[in-house]
Design a protein that fits this description.
By secondary structure, this protein is mainly alpha-helical. The chain is built from 4 helices and no strands.
Length: 67
């Protein structure tokens, strides 16, 4: 269980790191409604439900890649 939570913490840390990068901030300037900051509940759900979110992302990514 501890490894599951640690992977979730690492996942959320990387997600927040990439969404605060300079490259992503340039995109926010062109489309300001594309991103909202993470609150406590979003972080908690990201830590607890990371396998579900990873599965949804993988499905969408592969679907667009095959298209």
């Amino acid at each position: 269980m501890a490894i599951y939570i640690l992977i979730g913490v690492l996942f959320m840390f990387l997600l927040e790191h990439f969404t605060t990068s300079k490259k992503f901030k340039k995109y926010i300037k062109t489309n300001p409604t594309a991103f909202k900051t993470f609150g406590f509940w979003e972080r908690l759900m990201g830590i607890l439900c990371w396998p579900l979110f990873l599965g949804i992302f993988s499905y969408s990514f592969l679907k667009e890649l095959i298209k």
